[in-house]
Design goal:
298 residues; three-stranded mixed β-sheet; 10 helices; 10 strands
Length: 298
């Protein structure tokens, strides 16, 4: 199949592209920088309009929308938060416009989103849980809504509500492991808050699994099946890295330093990949320790 990926030059896109190419697919990357993973073809775009590339949608069987400025960008100024919105929503609207104008439309649209859709607290969430009203949750709502119209155009649409993805020396893993690496590992705040995560290999496998399943449509939580607290996550990491686990970081320090961004580490709702597991998908890395052994000891 011909597969078009927005944001395909980033961490997730590179790993997904490598796997799709290995399966024999042709992969095209919408990129502002003109770069594409080896084996894929770069298509220049401005992530806001269809100018110069929109006609290429006629060649595609699948569109995967991964574009979006990383939430790890600090600090969260008004301008940064606007970038979070525009990089997700405007790029999604541009993809929709290209599909609307196409004479040959792709059959599948896969939309990236976030597990923070369900908010910062509450009971164990699954895909049926309604969205929360905080900034991060509403950002996912706007992100998802930007491309919802493709369902009316006949495309099979899948929404990936992904937890932070752990990779070997990539993504957020180097930053998340830094305190433990520096021998100052411990829980952040109370440590009782949820620490959502998924291994990159499981994330890629889940995307390809849903792509191949003709009955898959709607929202799926891409998160490890074993709920993990912040304290449990950091304790497992410290054990695998043979580092001490003893320094809790006071919540007030995190709030002072990170300001609004502190919700990424001090708050979090436990969620489960209910629809994914019920469909028959098997996780390779269900527990944090298994993931860390793979990422740090191999």
């Amino acid at each position: 199949m011909n597969i078009l990926i927005s944001g395909g030059a980033g961490f997730l896109g590179r790993n997904l592209t490598r796997s799709l190419l290995a399966e024999g697919h042709q992969v095209y990357i919408l990129t502002r920088g003109g770069r594409a993973p080896e084996g894929a073809q770069a298509i220049q775009w401005d992530a806001k309009t269809t100018e110069g590339w929109g006609h290429r949608i006629n060649e595609m069987d699948v569109v995967i929308h991964l574009a979006g400025k990383s939430l790890s960008t600090w600090p969260w100024t008004a301008a940064t938060k606007r970038d979070f919105y525009e990089s997700r929503v405007l790029s999604g609207l541009a993809l929709v416009q290209a599909i609307q104008q196409a004479t040959h439309r792709p059959g599948i649209f896969i939309q990236q989103s976030g597990i923070n859709h369900y908010g910062l607290s509450g009971d164990l969430a699954d895909e049926s849980t309604p969205p929360a009203q905080d900034f991060l949750a509403q950002l996912t709502v706007q992100w998802e809504d930007a491309t919802k119209v493709v369902e009316e155009l006949g495309l099979r649409r899948i929404v990936l509500r992904s937890a932070p993805v752990l990779g070997k020396g990539e993504g957020l893993m180097p930053l998340m492991s830094l305190p433990v690496q520096l021998f100052v590992g411990g829980p952040l705040g109370s440590g009782k808050q949820a620490m959502p995560w998924i291994h990159i290999e499981d994330w890629v496998a889940a995307v390809q699994y849903l792509l191949a399943d003709k009955n898959a449509r709607g929202a799926y939580n891409l998160i490890a099946p074993m709920p993990t607290s912040n304290a449990e996550f950091n304790r497992a990491l410290a054990k695998v890295l043979h580092r001490p686990y003893w320094f809790p970081v006071p919540a007030f320090l995190m709030r002072t330093f990170l300001r609004e961004m502190n919700v990424l580490v001090l708050e979090g709702r436990f969620s489960q990949p209910k629809r994914l597991t019920e469909s028959g998908f098997k996780f390779q890395f269900a527990a944090a320790r298994e993931a860390f052994v793979d990422l740090f000891r191999k």
